[in-house]
Specification:
Helix content is about 35%, strand content about 15%. By secondary structure, it is of the alpha/beta class. It folds into 2 domains: about 5-10 and about 20-210 and about 255-300 and about 310-340, 7-stranded beta/alpha barrel (Alpha-Beta Barrel), CATH 3.20.110; about 215-255, no CATH class. The strands form 2 sheets. Strands 1, 2, 3, 4, 5, 6, 7, 8, 11 and 12 form a 10-stranded mixed β-sheet that branches. Helix 5 packs across helix 6. The chain is globular. The two termini are about 30 Å apart. About 45% of the residues are buried.
Length: about 350
C-alpha cells in the first residue's frame, strides 16, 4: 500500500496550523526492553534494567519543564522494575504514559517470529487487536490509568492499526515517520507524509502527531527525488547520500539524538519552522540512557555526548527558536472546537 493509499484508508485530514503560534517541543520516548539490535527477534529479550537510569534523561527535561510521553511496551509494563521508576515520574505530573507495541514480546504469541511480523500492521487485524488490547490493559493496571497515546514499534502502523485504536479508546497516535519507506523490509511507507499533525479515523477522529523527519538542503522541492536517486541500491558504493549531505544538497534528518547530530537537528528545526511547522517531536529510545544497550550509546563517553546533545537542543529550542514545552495531550486539548470535538 502506498502512502497516498494509506492516507485515504485512514481518512486523514489536515489540522489547521496557526503560523503565529510559538513552536512546541514534544518528547516521545520509546520505552522498552534491552536487546541486540543486530540479532534476530527473540521472545526471550525481556530485561528492563536500563530503565532504572531514566533519571539521567528526566533530569535534563525537568530543567526545561518538558514532560515526556513514555510510550511503554509489554516487558516494561509487566515488570515491577520497569514500572516503578516511571510511575513515580508520571504520578508527580512530570511525564505521561502511552503504549508502544513490540509484537515479538507482547502476548498473545501466535505469530511466527520474522522481520515482517515485527510490524504490528502485518499481523492480521485480529492478532494486532489482541496484542494492543492486552498491552493497553497491562498499562492501565500497572500505572492506574489507560494510555491515551500509542506508538507502533518499528513504525508498524496501517489501516488496521487506525481502526483498532479507534475501537480501543485511544486518542492519539505517534507512529507515522514522515519521508520514510519500510516496504523493502515488510513494513509500511510514509514517504508522502510530512511533519504536520493531522486527524484520522472513520468512526471517531484521533490525532496523529508524526515523528519530526524531513529533508534539509538546497535541493528544496526536489529533495525527495534527489535523495531517492542517491539511495539507489546499485549506487551505494558511491556513497552519494553522504556526499549530498556533506555538500548541503539534501539530507534526510530525524529530530532525534540517535543518528542525528546537534547541527543537523538545529537545521531541521529551522527549516521546518520556516515552512510553518509549529509542533516538533523529539524522539529516542529509553535503553540509550545506559551504555551498551543501543548502538547509539556504547560507552560512558557516548553517554556524556548523548545527554549533552539532548540538553543543547532543548536550550536551542527555548532560546533561538523561542519554543515552549508541550505534550501531544495538551496539543489535542488546544485544537479548535471542530477538530477537538472530533477526536473525543
Amino acid at each position: 500500500m502506498s502512502a497516498h493509499e494509506l492516507k485515504q484508508a485512514i481518512a486523514a485530514r489536515s489540522v489547521a496550523v496557526a503560523t503565529s503560534a510559538r513552536p512546541q517541543l514534544f518528547v516521545v520516548v520509546d520505552t522498552e526492553e534491552e536487546f541486540d539490535w543486530n540479532a534476530p527477534f527473540s521472545r526471550a529479550n525481556t530485561s528492563v534494567g536500563a530503565i532504572r537510569h531514566i533519571h539521567r534523561l528526566q533530569n535534563i527535561l525537568d530543567r526545561y519543564q518538558l514532560r515526556p510521553t513514555y510510550v511503554v511496551d509489554y516487558p516494561i509494563a509487566s515488570q515491577a522494575d520497569g514500572v516503578a521508576p516511571l510511575k513515580e515520574i508520571a504520578d508527580s505530573g512530570r511525564a505521561q504514559i502511552g503504549a508502544h507495541l513490540h509484537p515479538w514480546v507482547s502476548p498473545p504469541f501466535l505469530e511466527e517470529l520474522s522481520g515482517p511480523n515485527s510490524f504490528g500492521c502485518r499481523l492480521g487485524r485480529e492478532l494486532e487487536f489482541d496484542k494492543i488490547r492486552i498491552l493497553r490493559d497491562e498499562i492501565a493496571t500497572a500505572f492506574g490509568r489507560a494510555p491515551r497515546a500509542f506508538k507502533a514499534g518499528r513504525y508498524g502502523f496501517g489501516p488496521s492499526t487506525a481502526s483498532i485504536l479507534e475501537e480501543l479508546g485511544f486518542a492519539i497516535d505517534l507512529s507515522v515517520n514522515p519521508r520514510m519507506n519500510y516496504l523493502s523490509i515488510g513494513g509500511p511507507t510514509f514517504d508522502a507524509f510530512d511533519a504536520q499533525p493531522f486527524t484520522f479515523g472513520r468512526n471517531r477522529r484521533l490525532l496523529e502527531v508524526p515523528c519530526t523527519t524531513d529533508y534539509i538542503g538546497v535541493a528544496g522541492p526536489l529533495s525527495a527525488t534527489v535523495h531517492r536517486f542517491a539511495s539507489t541500491p546499485s549506487l551505494q558504493p558511491l556513497k552519494l547520500q553522504g556526499i549530498c549531505a556533506r555538500l548541503g544538497i539534501v539530507n534526510k534528518v530525524m529530530l532525534s539524538p540517535e543518528g542525528s547530530t546537534l547541527d543537523e537537528m538545529k537545521a531541521l528545526a529551522r527549516t521546518l519552522l520556516g515552512r510553518g511547522v509549529r509542533t516538533f517531536s523529539f524522539t529516542l529510545h529509553s535503553p540509550s540512557v545506559e551504555p551498551g544497550c543501543t548502538p547509539y550509546v556504547r560507552n560512558a563517553g557516548d553517554l556524556e555526548r548523548f545527554l549533552g546533545t539532548i540538553a543543547a537542543f532543548c536550550e536551542f529550542f527555548v532560546t533561538e527558536m523561542s519554543g515552549v514545552p508541550g505534550t501531544p495531550d495538551d496539543y489535542l486539548a488546544s485544537l479548535p472546537a471542530a477538530d477537538a470535538a472530533a477526536t473525543h
